């Protein structure tokens, strides 16, 4: 592997590469994210934004209480989010725990959802506290069951201790397991990384190690995908594109529950990374409750009156 | 010594237990009965209504599952809090409507009594309107009243405080949550009453109070799919048919009343019938 020629795989080269990063202006990032959040999106633009956001949703269920029935119901919803309206696009992917990957893939294929990929959360999600052998097997297992996207977590403990090369090597190893069978999304759990500088550092580390996507959080820790964190990560993929001509995707997850939040994310994407990122190949939103709110807003735009949660499916 | 500057009260909305200004930033002037400027009140927009519905819906699960006894206690508590502030309400009613002190006092005391009266109904309504039905089979079969969900009420212009309380007390007695649009001309006592609600152990979102123009907000109430019923006692008859047509989309129950009656409780209750097998 050549890591885009940025590092040679040694600890020294990784340190040199990451030491060249500029710091993040925390106050500036907060202010810019807050300023972009005030933008108002109306009528045809809003309609476009709602449909685009639906196509970007990684419809997620990551509960200890997940059942086969629940995953199948979610798959049905993923393919055709509003059963009464075929113009609503399918979602970006279904995101489940490893043991449900087979169930989801089989059901999607059965109901005409071959185009909807299944993402698996691997590598001892959500804590990442397991040996690399276990993580490799975990990933392999998900790919064998039909996962075409792997959402891996980094070892935050190692990152915070400064053992960056261990974090790097782990991502490289999982990248090799994924090969050309699965996309790799790397989850940082930004709520545990403490500073924006760390988020930027983790972003460049993961991108050089071969991530296809960088993802904010597991959804199990708060704060999760706050606007400034997403802004910092979008700036990272933009800068990385300038360095390597390679576009890396971004996936905020956790805490994005309504249409307004989702549209704010799209504004951030457009103004930071650019319009090339405004599609489900380069931007995803990890969510569960969000989809219902998007559908209700869509109904409001079509019918002219406010919708009720009674008319969308219960997750 | 300079003259002391009066501290004016800011009248805001009451949504989800908090006092926000209207999302639209609009206000309108409230005047005394003689036409002098009195205060600025918020002119709610449809988006304020939308926020209130979200709050009321979220509050419904907890409020409807609270025991009837507990709901009665809280209604009684509201009456206690209102009584402690009688003087303030008398002043507000006098200044906005121009009635005499005696009349204003009578209205406030009647409002307190109305709250106590509905508080008493809370744990009696299911015994009185429920039934144990004889059926041809080995079943217990009984019917009990349950709350409908989220109710929107348009309070009468006059009497502004008593009318408001008559619009909301019976609705929440059975476990509904409510969004009430207060008297347009005399909204001050409604917003002061919201301060009473905020200190009465009432869970956030059970009662939400909006002020503004009735012909602007009522049609949005009628067409909102997440509002289950409406009390349009305070709406001019010109708007009634428009409201009923819009409300038909989700089969809203739409009623109008005069005065405090027990019928106001049963109107906003659903009858649930339960079949239960008789054991050995």
Automatic annotation (TrEMBL), chain A:
InterPro entries: Aldolase_TIM, DeoC, DeoC/FbaB/LacD_aldolase
EC class (word): lyase
GO terms under cellular component: cytoplasm
Pathway(s) served: Carbohydrate degradation; 2-deoxy-D-ribose 1-phosphate degradation; D-glyceraldehyde 3-phosphate and acetaldehyde from 2-deoxy-alpha-D-ribose 1-phosphate: step 2/2
GO molecular function list: deoxyribose-phosphate aldolase activity
The keyword Lyase is assigned to this record: yes
EC number of this enzyme: 4.1.2.4
Keyword field: Lyase, Schiff base
The reaction(s) this protein catalyses: 2-deoxy-D-ribose 5-phosphate = D-glyceraldehyde 3-phosphate + acetaldehyde
Biological process according to GO: carbohydrate catabolic process; deoxyribonucleotide catabolic process
Pfam families, A to Z: DeoC
Protein name, UniProt field: deoxyribose-phosphate aldolase
Organismal lineage: unclassified sequences, metagenomes, ecological metagenomes
UniProtKB/TrEMBL annotation, chain B:
GO molecular function: oxidoreductase activity
Aldehyde dehydrogenase domain span: 29-260
Record-linked Pfam families: Aldedh (PF00171)
PANTHER family documented for this protein: ALDEHYDE DEHYDROGENASE-RELATED (PTHR11699)
Descriptive protein name: Unannotated protein
Species classification: unclassified sequences, metagenomes, ecological metagenomes
